[in-house]
Amino acid sequence: MKFIVYGAGALGSLFGALLSTKHDVLLVGREEHIKAIEKNGLKIEGATKGIFYPKVKWDGSRYDVVLLTTKSYDTRKAVKEIKEKFGKIAVLSLQNGLRNEEIIAEEMGMEYALGGITSHGATFLQAGKIYHAGKGETVIGELNGKITERIRKIVDAFNECGIETKISRNIKEEIWRKAIINSAINGLTAVLRCKNGEILRDAHAKKLLEEICKEGIRVANAEGVEVGNEVIQKAKEIAYKTADNISSMLQDILKGKKTEVEEINGEIIKIAKKHGIEAPLNEFLTYAIKAMENVRHLG
Fold first, then answer.
1. Is there a contact between 72 and 99 (Cβ–Cβ < 8 Å)?
2. Domain residue extents for the chain
3. Cα dihedral: 291, 293, 296, 299 (round 10)
4. Which CATH architecture has domain 2-169?
């Protein structure tokens, strides 16, 4: 298959590298990163090791699917750019947040929107180099729940390249589960400034993880999404499997960049208010992390 990875940061570069071992992959990302890959290849350390050589220049040919791995606050802008440059093409979101697929459908058309989640942990080290902090599972699906030929082909391509992937008939539920888990792991690690595994080593942090997940579950249920307390155990499993990972939200804080807290925790708050539910933990995390983006720290 022919894949475009649009927004090739840490996660996008990881998927692009692995897929490039058996498929035609074009990476689209920041100029400095792309130039380093063009010159020396894409270097990966950690759970995956090696130098990979995906394409970084478009030859004008038609591609099958775009893997969208930009920050969720850039989704609309990215999809408009994709449509303008590559035309109408299937777009598979592997992003954080709750509204990406909806935005893709609005900009590209419902039939071009695909949903996905992944729990792989990856950290951007420097231009042309990333760290694969932990392997995880990937789940993708059509928004209408059908098992189509294109979704089968994508799953086969992923699995063929060592990206363990399953098809979901209800990808909306999977996206909600991931958003709840991210609201807890990303939110806590950003505020506590720790790696994912530290949440499980401290009783207070672990209790917060559980309560944030419970809050998200209540909001999802009010929205008509059937998720339960299995999400709490899944959050702990992911924190354990990616113990050495620095969450994307913490990476952004450490670099002085904008986070996705509004698209994750903030979106949970909006939906909670719609249903007359309180979400105090998500409110605290959202306000605290937005303040951390803007307030100058000592030291």
1. yes
2. 2-169, 172-294
3. 110
4. 3-Layer(aba) Sandwich (3.40)
Using alpha carbons only, give the angle 127, 130, 134 rounded to the nearest 5 degrees.
165
pLDDT, residue 134, reads 85
- What are the strands of the beta sheet with 50-52, ordered from one edge? 50-52, 42-46, 129-134, 121-126
pLDDT 10s digits, 270-295: 999 999 999 999 999 999 999 999 88
Classified as helix, coil or strand, 118 is strand
* Number of neighbouring beta carbons within 10 Å of residue 111: 12
Query: Any catalytic annotation for residue 178?
Result: yes
User: What does the alpha-carbon distance between residue 72 and residue 3 come to, in Å, rounded to a whole number?
Assistant: 20
Please identify which of the residues 43, 129, 135, 178 carries the catalytic annotation. 178
Pick the CATH number of 172-294 from 3.40.50.150, 1.50.10.10, 1.10.600.10, 1.10.1040.10: 1.10.1040.10
Residue 59's CB is within 10 A of a number of other CB atoms, namely: 7
Whether the CB-CB separation of 141 and 116 falls below 8 Å is answered with yes
111-115: long-range pairs with CB below 8 Å, 24+: 112/88, 113/143, 114/65, 114/90, 114/140, 114/141, 114/142, 114/143, 114/151, 114/154, 115/140, 115/141, 115/142, 115/143, 115/171, 115/172, 115/174, 115/175
Kindly state the DSSP code that residue 141 receives in the 8-state scheme. Answer: E
For the chain, report the end-to-end CA distance as a whole number of angstroms.
49
86-98 pLDDT, tens digit per residue, is 999 999 999 999 9
